[in-house]
TrEMBL record:
InterPro entries: NTF2-like_dom_sf
Name of the protein described by the UniProt record: SnoaL-like domain-containing protein
Gene3D superfamilies listed in its UniProt record: 3.10.450.50
Superkingdom assignment: Eukaryota
Amino acid sequence: MESNISSWFKAFYAVSDDGTAHDKYPNFFTPDAKLIMGDKVAVGRDEILTTRKNMWASVSSRHHTYTYFTSPEAPNTYMLAGHVKYGFKDGKKGETDWVAKAEFEEEEEGGKERRLLFYQVFLNAGKR
């Protein structure tokens, strides 16, 4: 799993930080994936797309930085720690630290693209 994971996360957060890439975001997930973003829960790509669009409702820009960790005992699971900076549509700015758990579907022979089966982000939005 470790091969190319750095490129995968780079592509994932580039799309996550692109407010015009809503339709690309669900493609990083399996069709029945579960996304938990703070207190919001979405199951399946349609709900993930709706959640994604709602997350951008008051946001004009955002930029994630992160590091990730895994273990040989759970090679399809990654823990991430990061920071995100926001620009809001009302002109204000904000930032917060976050951690996440990313679980990928089991890899199969044949080079199938990596997809998230479960992704949960823990954050404290704090003051805007």
